[in-house]
Write a structure and sequence with these properties.
Layout: E1 2-8, E2 12-17, H1 22-28, E3 46-49, E4 54-56, E5 68-72
Parallel strand pairs: 1-5
Antiparallel strand pairs: 1-2, 3-4, 3-5
């Protein structure tokens, strides 16, 4: 099943498959998400979902049962 993934604030849209890692989807769309440990511990790759829920992109994938998935990127001045 294909899911339309929109990366904000730049409005980059990428078609992804359910279960595909968010970092891979972002890379394919030319969207940079910084990483650190790539295990979800350092939170360098933290992004927000449309409802404001923070997730670590390095350990998260495209969920099932959704046609659209919105990821809000923000930069952490510490990283």
């Amino acid at each position: 099943m294909s899911v339309e993934v929109k990366f904000l604030p730049d409005n980059v849209t990428v078609t992804a498959e359910v279960g595909e890692p968010i970092l891979e989807v972002a890379k394919r769309g030319g969207v940079f998400i910084p990483t650190g440990c790539v295990m979800g511990s350092c939170h360098a790759c933290e992004v927000e979902l449309e409802d404001g829920t923070p997730i670590c992109a390095c350990i998260s994938s495209i969920p099932a049962n959704t046609a659209k998935f919105i990821v809000n990127l923000y930069s952490d001045p510490v990283w």
